[in-house]
Write a structure and sequence with these properties.
The structure is a single chain. The chain has about 325 residues and is an alpha/beta fold. It has one domain: TIM Barrel, CATH 3.20.20. About 40% of the residues lie in helices and about 15% in strands. It contains ten helices and ten strands. Strands 1-2-3-4-5-6-7-10 form an eight-stranded parallel β-barrel, surrounded by four helices. A two-stranded antiparallel ribbon has the order 8-9. Strand 5, helix 5 and strand 6 form a beta-alpha-beta unit. The longest helix has 27 residues.
């Protein structure tokens, strides 16, 4: 297992400077955004049409001794607004094609969320089964929009030797292990998850227990923590819509690794990941509003590098 970094937190710096900085933190693996919500500061899809640009990019990565754990294009390819939907889908498909050219096996994305009907203009995330029209909306979304799209999109990725890791995130149709596995059962084994424990914490899902539920559906892992504020939780519950920067009044906020849960928790987390077959990257994603990107990266990289299990276990004498 190794520590990596999702680079949008350093989007103000050019790629070569980012790589040199990360190497000083004993990190040699990056996850790169290609557009949609993460932006494309360090990985341009224009490389698909520019062999010279692609060659220079590969050289920058390789000459600095780095590997790419994933390309990420988190977006909503099911958006009911046609212009938004087509733009995000184009980015997603081009990201798959670029991953193929770069030999990157994993593309990270969201599942997306449709509206409530063909006439909708905004996504509609259904969170309860009553009144009964909500279940009708949910059935329509999955049967008429989600399933047809993901069967086709998963095949497109598989045809290009790429797998799709869905980040389970509230606001989209696949937001917890149950809905992720439902999507996987429809789209096939080429769809799995980008596992971010921070999104489990604030839904009151034990992230370690959920590893056992997800098993080999875990394709990629984000290293991010969440802190629950029990003083505010009775007033708001976990579905808190206040801005992330309103830390004093929120029921939870995202934290740098180690600031929500201690080293003992993270040791058990990485051990359980390995137990269930995941022995790849922990990609640091900085979204801690109480720490600067530099502080978050410094603290998270030091914290995780002391925790990850880097060596394969030797065969036991009794095996």
């Amino acid at each position: 297992m190794r520590v990596g970094v999702f680079t949008p937190l350093l989007s103000q710096l050019p790629l070569d400077v980012v790589l040199k900085k990360l190497k000083s933190y004993e990190i040699q693996t990056v996850e790169l955004g290609t557009g949609n919500y993460p932006g494309d500061a360090h990985c341009k899809l224009s490389m698909l049409e520019n062999p010279a640009e692609l060659a220079m990019f590969k050289s920058t990565i390789e000459d600095n001794g780095f590997s790419i754990s994933a390309l990420s294009c988190h977006g909503n390819s099911l958006h009911p607004d046609k212009a938004v939907r087509e733009a995000m889908l184009k980015t997603s498909r081009q990201t798959i094609l670029l991953a193929e050219k770069l030999g990157v096996k994993t593309v990270v994305d969201f599942s997306g969320c449709p509206g409530d009907s063909p006439a909708a203009t905004a996504p509609n995330w259904v969170t309860c089964p009553w009144p009964p029209e909500y279940l009708k909306v949910l059935d329509w979304q999955w049967n008429e929009v989600v399933a047809p799209f993901w069967v086709e999109h998963a095949k497109f990725a598989a045809d290009h030797g790429v797998r799709i890791a869905i980040e389970m995130h509230p606001g989209f149709v696949a937001y917890n292990p149950e809905t992720l596995l439902k999507l996987r059962s429809i789209a096939g084994s080429n769809v799995g998850c980008n596992y971010d424990p921070s999104h489990m914490f604030w839904q009151n899902i034990d992230p370690i227990a959920a590893v056992r539920v997800l098993g080999d559906a875990i394709f990629h892992v984000h290293a991010k923590d969440t802190q629950i504020y029990t003083a505010n939780l009775p007033r708001t519950g976990v579905l808190d819509t206040k801005p992330y920067t309103d830390e004093r009044n929120r029921s939870w906020i995202f934290r740098t690794c180690g600031y929500g849960h201690d080293a003992e928790w993270w040791k058990e987390f990485v051990s359980t990941l390995r137990m269930f077959g995941y022995d790849d990257v922990l990609s640091i994603e900085h979204e801690d509003s109480l720490l600067s990107p530099e502080e978050g990266l410094t603290k998270a990289s030091k914290f995780l590098n002391e925790i990850v299990i880097k060596e394969q276990p030797a065969a036991a004498w009794w095996v």
